[in-house]
Amino acid sequence: MAPPTLPASLSPHVCILASPDVQQVLEGAGLPPLPEILQCFSPLPQITTRTTSLTSVSHASFALRFSDVVDIENAVHEDEEQRAGRMMDWMGSRISQRCQRWVDMLETHAREGGGKMWRDRTPWWEEVKRCVEGDHVPSSSEGWNHPVSLILAVTTTAGNPLQALQDLTARAFDFPPWVDITSLRYFLIIHPSNSSLADPIAEALFNAVKKQYGLHSFLLPLHLPTDPLPASVPVPALPPRLPTIPTHDSPLLTPRPTGPGEFISPSPTPPPHPASPMPQASRPPPLTNRTPDNPPQSPTVYTGSTLRLTQDDIQQIGRFVREYVTMSLVPWMEKCVVEWNENYSSSRRLPSRLFSSTRRLFGASSSASSPATPTHGSSPSVSSVTSRFTHGTNNSVSSITSVTSVSTMGGGSVNQQRRLAEFATILGDYKLAISVWETLRKEARGGSDILPLLSAPSPALALHADHALSTLRGPQPRQGLAFEAPAHAQYRALVYAVRWETGIDHQDFLSPTLEGERWLVKAASSAEEPPTAILYAHAAFLSESKGLRRRAAFWYLNAAEKLEKTGIKPLAMHFFRKAHDLYRDPPPKELSPSFWESEGRSPTRWEGFSAVLPAIEHELGRLLYTTGDTAGAVKYFLELLRPALLHGPQLHPPHAANGTGSPLLPQPTRDKVYLEDFRVAFKHFKQTEGEIWKSLGLQLPITFCQAKYTRVRFPGDAVEGDPAVWEKLEDDWSTFWSSHGKDKLGKSGNAATNEAFWVDIALRNPLDVEVTLSGLTVSVRDASTQDSKANPDFVEVEVIDDVVLGPKDTRTIPVAVKCTRPAALVVTQASYNFLSLLPAAESLAVRGRRLNDTPVQRQGKVYAPDVLIRVEVEEASQRLHAHFVDDRHLVLAQGEYKHQRIWLTNSGTRSIGELWVLAGEADELWVDVISGDSAEASSSSPPKSEVLRSTNSLAPRKPQHIPLDAIHNAPQLAPGEEVQLPLILHAAHHGEQDLCVLFVFRESDDAPFHCTRVTRRYEVKPILKVTTSARPSASLDQTYILNVEVENITNSSNIELKQVSTMSALWSCSPLVPPSNVVVPPRQLANISISASPWGSGVGASDTRDFVARKIRAVVQEDPVDPSEPPPIELTCAHVAPDPDIVPLHTPATRHFIHCGRRTMTAQSTAASHPDIPARLHRAVFPLYNPATVDVVLFWELPAQKRAGHILLQGPTLGAGHAALREIVHAARTMKVKRSMYAETQRERAAILEAVSACEWNREEDPVAVFVRDGAVVEHDFRQGPCHVPVAFTLRNLSLTHPARVTLKLVESRESDPSDNLLPPPYAGRLTHRTIIQPSQSYTTSAKLWATRPGCFALHSWTVETEVGEPPVPPLEDDTQTASPAPWKSRHLRYLQRPRAGERPCVTVVDTGRLA
């Protein structure tokens, strides 16, 4: 491993104390103070040192730091926390003053392609490093800035140089006790050419000094010409240093005695002696790159980063510095290391360590655990209190052979062991230095910050860095609490970061092992100071050089936010732009070209990280606006209004007032903040800059117009209603008329002259904030000419003043257009003023379809030309306007009849001779045009039962033809004439409904059809809750008893039930009690019982079942389904109502309403039960009616309100089913089908089979109902002995088609319920009864009980086993012989029946003997 390069801040610190004559000589020659002159000769090249093992170490450069003792004395008394705070503020002010020049320089280099020197470094980081390295004030936590050597300088121009030197030697040093001044004292005599002493005398003076003060002396002859001055020699700029605070702000040092009864004041006021070592004269400005604020008063004043020295003087000074280092400083430091190492080694031996550990573990004081020598490098003879401030003539002579003669200032936190580690580090004795630093680290006395500089790269170095930083900040508060380290900790962390970045090899520092950029971030922590922000910025710069762009962008963001808070806006904007560029830089994606083609995206298009970019752009816009660049701010704010889909989640909360937001108030959305900033900035820009904004080319990045959903609406077109409903009605008409002719239905696509039509612009606000659009209009041009002029003279276009769109709001805004002559118009675009400030225009063209006709088109993406909105304006010919006479809001009761009238007006120029009307599938509408059949039917007396013949088809109802002569006095409707069309609306479905009616009309048979629409919205509220249930009947006169329960759910209205009608193809119903009108009060119930018996006189029931079985077989076997419809069916209808009030069901309106309601119910239930069978096949597979179902029609009336209606209810399915589709499903499951590679096909086929198995056409249940005679009472005199009690069991076959073989078993119960007070049945005689019951037949058998005592005997403990047989084959018509009974054939359906829980039939035996 190459030897580490130590930062300049870890070099020896040399203090200089010069007499006033030195300052005068240098000022006369136009030179800076002596420390700054000597600093120009650092570092020294090729310096060799020796380790404790006498190994030579060659230093390519050996740095030194020179300071004035007076400056150190003035600065060392300042509180360290205060000084650290001033240091951070001072660095922040320097960064603020220079940042604009830095940013301009880098931008200029980037444009011109130069700036190679800034490719691997940044000016702001270099500035922070120079400020940190320029800190020379000693610290109590480390000894790097403690003086290593003291140079006492005089000149031969003094009146008495020896006396001046003696005064300097005897001077009292104003240092705190913790400052360690174990230092080498060196004496420098400057002999200028204008000195009054000759050279031999100067040599004699030098010899006298060596004789009196030792060999650490040097005579420095200099020419220093003044007339003329030498040419300026450029020198490196000196590191900047923190200015000292005024003297009166510095705390005074407590006086300390120098002898018995004597005190020395630390006041910096010099004594009146002419050769005072405390000069108070003004000094020239420091050596920096800045020009002084005041112009120089004379040509001899030093003014810049140059030195006016001759080459001979430069060589002389260089020789002095090298001799001083090689002959005095380095040997002295080596001697110190040797002696201190001996003390350190002796303290680390086993007995000493055990003794130290014992004292440490058992509570010894810290003073007891310190080494015997009170201060390192001192002897008891020179460590008195006096020696802290004064150095006598005899005891201050330093020599290489004895380190103990060097004076010291007393103990502090910087002890001898730490100074040993620091000296060893400076001298290159890294083996010794690392061992000592490790010892200090283990004893929690520092060292973790230096070990990363000296050790080989390893993961342990990161732990050292973390430990050093955590030691500075101390214990952290609980998570969630705001915490900022004190200024001293922040500054020390900054110092550590600078040392690590400078002293560790660049490649090692950025290697994956160390990841040194993370160290800088940890050192910055959460502090809000400019230097810590620079730490983030440099970490980002290093990450960017490593290719970690996203991490670098994140750290640039942190740096920019901190700088923005401190007011350094130019650099903050620069970092924001860097982060913005990095987030927009696309990451490499090694994807197949087919991926981009399949996704429809361009591989070169990259929007960046949309979750972060808007926040960065917003900050840049705000900074530009506050710095006066309003145009740039407007551009940023405008780009922020991109669609929210690109923004992603809101990671950066918007700024609140005064930097804080109230937690009780809702925070504004991000779009609201962006929009408000754009509005304020753009309004200000237009007011201040006039028409300059037009040259910016501002384009709104969002669109409000939805061209795909923009439509043209003509007069008479209904805007309400579902568009799918209108399309379905038009398709139904086309399907209906296709079998009558080839005439097409003309769409409403033409406008009439001098008649307004509307362009319904679909506007959608993509922002989460309210937006105002003013001046909304459309551009229309003539398609027949090449003139692109918008809105020609014969076209009038409406302009909407203001349109307010709420957050994420979608609205349709109609814009009226009127044309005065026939023409072909094209609507090209919509225009508006965004926020009444920015004009914008959006095209209303829709992209054409993708072309796939030729191989070239299929290989690429080729689209047809864009589709524009075209409007044909023609002369008005056939126009029919329709509207309801009463357009008030309708609130109807469920099932109510509502008579309505529609005004039909011929507004065209031609007559209308043919009129048709269509309504929606769910709308039950009847055109109330009285025909002869209906009048005749209404005149006859209604019967109590009737038979209806139904088509039994799910096909949609056909359009209804309206004979004009039935509603008008002429067979044609002439232009300008009006007519009223009466309608009856049946409100069958509750809730909000839309009545959609389509009128189709034409002039004559050879004319094309036209249509017009009308819609009416109404609300339906339920008033009745109707439920039905059925149970088998024990009576032989009826098979089932049907119970209809009606509940009045209104709160204040009495409802009269006028009639209950039943409809079924297999069951005939009749009332159990004489019918009468039933009035149901509010919140009350009414029950109506109806008997049901089989009805076999109708036709179509068996054919319907066979039709369903045949069609289901084709579906499950995946055969083509023929389009044939179910056979017609006859329904028997029974009415429960008084004779004069019976409402027949065969009247056209009632029959129409019942058919529509039944079709809606069947279609919905079929779609829910068989979702995998296509809906288009339902009418060819399933019939309208299930023959076994009993439908109930309930007629009601509100007498007080004169309202009436009916409710259709699908009742229960009666009779027993026997899995009629079982064989079909079994065959489909076991058949060999063609394998499919799509799993979805297999799942769909399995779902169809499951749905067929569970449907109503494949239901299966026990056909036998068991009835036991309950409540019989038998009298017997038990004095004559026991008796037989007869019990009757009735078994009824509820099936209408299949016989049943039944076995009744009577078993005496062995266990009885203790809580039951009934006796178990003691059956006697025949216990097993077998029989075959034919369809719809019953069988009654008698059993006996052997009663030995009176009591109530329970009639349970029986079982009924049922086996269903196949129906018998009907005999042929030509068979004249007597048909023999068909043999039994089982259907393999067996059931076991026991008494139902809760039913306890019984028979009572009374002892008449006791009564006698």
Describe it for me?
This protein is 30% helix and 24% strand. Helix 18 (530-546) runs antiparallel to helix 19 (549-565) and helix 23 (630-639) runs antiparallel to helix 25 (670-689). Strands 13, 15, 17, 19, 20 and 21 form a six-stranded mixed beta sheet that branches. Strands 27, 34, 36, 38, 39 and 40 form a six-stranded antiparallel beta sheet that branches. A hairpin with a 3-residue loop joins strand 19 (823-834) and strand 20 (838-843). The protein starts with 12 loop residues before the first strand and ends with a helix.
Describe this protein with a few key phrases.
single chain; about 1400 residues; alpha+beta; 6-stranded mixed beta sheet; 6-stranded antiparallel beta sheet; 35 helices; 51 strands
Short account of what is shown:
This protein has 1412 residues and is α+β, with helices and mostly antiparallel strands. Helix content is 30%, strand content 24%.
**What's the average pLDDT?**
82
Give the termini separation: 131 Å
Total strands: the figure is 51
Give me the secondary-structure category: alpha+beta
Low-confidence stretches: 248-304, 357-412, 645-664, 932-939
Inertia-based shape: elongated
Total of DSSP H or I helical runs spanning 4+ residues: 35
Q: Can you summarize the main beta sheet? A: 6 strands, mixed
Q: How large, in whole angstroms, is the Cα Rg?
A: 55 Å
